[in-house]
UniProtKB/TrEMBL annotation:
NCBIfam families: prenyl_cyano (TIGR02749)
Membership in a protein family: Belongs to the FPP/GGPP synthase family.
Gene coding for it: preA
Provenance organism: Izziella formosana
Cofactors (names): Mg(2+)
Gene Ontology molecular functions: metal ion binding; prenyltransferase activity
Name of the protein described by the UniProt record: Prenyl transferase
Pfam entry (one): polyprenyl_synt
Length: 324
């Protein structure tokens, strides 16, 4: 299986998901409905629901995916999208996935309400799964998002942030949802607690790798590929792995950060410093370490092409790395 073929394993399921998402968020108020539909029409990687479906295929009898598994995949994407709406307001991001953000299209008030509405919708569908353990696991993610945003806000433009603090923040903002949704999928397959935890660990480290690669792309990607301006995180004072690794070897970068990029050209200068150093390579190495940890947590008995879903879970790590 080639990395570009990973999503063909769940292609039909993702088509159903895309169709269902718009109907699930149908609101009575036309502006909330328009804001929600605008978000889902922008698409996205859909890596989170894909992981839910792959875990479901890998853990269910006869590879059958239950309606509850499908609904969990949809809930996961709604929660993720809700978090993006709020993130865009906080980061003052004008575009996302190549389209205008909700707060730019309407205003901050509508964007916050749209995000709240999506969180509320996801909670309602989550409760209707009638599985208390899954509800507990997934609902914790929403508090993790808030924790991650608070931590990020407190560490803005701080050149003394440690790698551990960065990893913790990345867990709360990204990996928590992926870990919980993988575990939730295993719960819906009625696996034992130990095996459920295996998929949580897999999702956690895949999520951390995904965030690290996303942070690298913020430095080296193009606006066209990112769907938002390059260096957005850096400009907002959100220091990520490439910058943190570079700080250890470049005092000039520390000066630019601590002065909050006071000149118009300072962000570009910082990006050049990071790209010229070892920060990008070291960040990619860190992502690879998390991918290896994720893979090693999976059942070890069948890593070959005959078990497509398990092999796809392994190859997702390679897919993530190939984004840069």
């Amino acid at each position: 299986m080639k990395t570009q073929e990973i999503f063909t394993v769940v292609e039909d399921e993702l088509k159903i998901l895309n169709k269902n998402l718009k109907s699930m968020v149908g609101a009575r108020h036309p502006i909330l409905h328009a804001a929600s539909e605008h978000l889902f029409s922008a698409g996205g990687k859909r890596i989170r629901p894909a992981l839910v479906i792959l875990v479901a295929q890998q853990t269910s009898r006869n590879k059958e995916i239950s309606p509850s598994h499908r609904r969990l995949a949809e809930i996961t994407e709604i929660i993720h999208t809700a978090s993006l709406v709020h993130d865009d307001v906080i980061d003052e991001c004008m575009t996302r996935r190549g389209v205008t953000t909700v707060h730019s299209l309407y205003n901050n008030k509508i964007a916050i309400l749209a995000g709240d509405f999506l969180f509320a919708q996801s909670s309602w569908y989550l409760a209707n799964l009638d599985n208390l353990n899954v509800v507990k696991t997934i609902s914790k993610v929403i508090t993790d998002f808030a924790e991650g945003e608070v931590r990020q806000g407190m560490l803005q433009f701080s050149s003394h942030i440690s790698m551990n603090e960065y990893i913790e923040k990345s867990f709360y903002k990204t990996a928590s949802l992926i870990a919980a949704s993988c575990q939730g999928s295993a719960m819906l397959s009625n696996l034992n607690h130990s095996t459920q935890n295996t998929y949580y660990i897999y999702g956690k480290h895949i999520g951390l790798a995904f965030q690290i690669i996303d942070d690298i792309l913020d430095i080296i990607g193009s606006k066209q590929n990112l769907g938002k301006p390059t260096g957005s995180d850096l400009k907002n004072g959100n220091l990520t792995a490439p910058a943190l690794f570079t700080l250890a070897e470049q005092l000039e970068l520390q000066y630019l950060i601590e002065n909050e990029f006071e000149n118009d050209s300072d962000v570009e200068k910082a990006i050049t410093i990071i790209c010229d150093g070892q920060g990008i390579k070291k960040a990619k190495d860190l992502a690879e370490e998390h991918i290896q940890t994720a893979i090693s947590s999976l059942p070890q008995n069948n890593f070959h092409n005959e078990d497509e879903s398990l092999y796809a879970l392994v190859m997702i790590g390679e897919y993530i790395l190939q984004q840069i």
